[in-house]
Amino acid sequence: MSAAAVRTAGEGRFPVLPLSILAAVWMVALLVWALATVDLDGVFLEDAARDVRAYCFGWDRPDRGAAIGGTLVMAGVPVVLSSVTILVWRRELLGGGRARGAFLALAGLALAGAGGVALAGASGRARGAPVAVALERKPAPDCALADARGTTFRLSEARGKVVCLTFFYTSCHSTCPEQLGKLLVVQDAFREGLGEDLLIVAVSIDPVRDDRFALGAYGARLGCDPAGWRFVGGDRETLDGVLDRWGVVRSVPKTIGPTTQIGHEALIALVDRSGNRAFDFRGTSWSDSFLLEKVAALLDEE
Are 275 and 156 in contact (CB under 8 A)? Predict the structure, then answer.
């Protein structure tokens, strides 16, 4: 049978293979984009979304440098794979009849799915954009934790200062670098009063790896001014108590390759000079200017 005859015979068959490839490509692409952009409830889904944002998109750097390349790659991969598939099987897909109808239907579903993910992501960010939650001023939960200096830090001893408190761990590659990056912006904006009027407290939730030496090295690597920062940690029982009192949702630690991932809620809490919990910033989709505005307001209070 000649090549032309084989090609003609092939054009008459329903193109199951190329349609299956296109469907798989777009199903995976839409799932990845949905995990990255849509607000999801539940620790398991939040963990999956956090891993996708970090490892697929690179949305884990304060300067957003890695996010640009990651986003372009994740947007380009399904387009390139689809283009190659269409180029290779163009006769089968565009030959007419049921094949063309199935191809156009699949293309329409892909476009509709992409639009749906975009709208869901936009509405989720608008609905859940955690700019700042003003709280009824009540005493912030106290904690007694070991700091990188080898001394015990007590939050109650910071009365008279505004405190920015967050939870992290040094091997985190998802939201932790972004949260700490926002607090570095606070450091730079209020450097003059750092340590005297303003204190930044970073509580590690990994008691296995984050001893005081690891905490000290991590703070130095980030460029945190030791005059205004306290990197603190404790044993598992103590940390569980602190996390419960602060209402931080977290998951059971899981090992991925050489690293351990601890899913936890992204939180930056602001404590006023009287030791009352004043504002909660949850998530990371808010502008640094909102945080600076609230910190400035608390610093202006007597």
Answer: yes
